[in-house]
From TrEMBL:
Protein name per the record: Gas vesicle protein
Keywords (A to Z) from UniProt: Coiled coil
A family per Pfam: YtxH
Coiled-coil regions listed in the entry: 95-122
PANTHER family: GENERAL STRESS PROTEIN, IG HYPOTHETICAL 17707
Keyword Disulfide bond assigned: no
InterPro entries registered for this protein in UniProt: Desiccation-related_membrane (IPR052928), YtxH (IPR024623)
Statement: the UniProt record of this protein carries the keyword DNA-binding: no
Amino acid sequence: MPNGKSLFLGVLVGGVVGASVSLLTTPTSGEEMRNRMKDQTDRLRDLTQEIKENGLDLKNQLAQTSKEGAALLKDLSQDIKESVESWKETVEPHQENLQEHLLQIEEGIKELEEKIKEQNYSR
């Protein structure tokens, strides 16, 4: 937020300096100069209030966005957790069958290797 404070301070100082130079270098009567100074002061006050309100709006929007983001991340992590659990429940019953099939395939390969060896020795 240091940049926001610097911007605000720059606008404030620039407005005061600009108004002062403008008022002091213009040949006008005292009453007209007072009216101009009052107008400039009012505009500066309005600008300051508007900047303050915009800053508060931005702060509130950032707070709301961060709350919504946190809620979305929580929901997303819960969805992922549920998906992983569901996948585990789906795979686990089939895991034993897969292991049995792998053992049968290994046994089949061993039998084939033995038959090949026997055929090579019998020749």
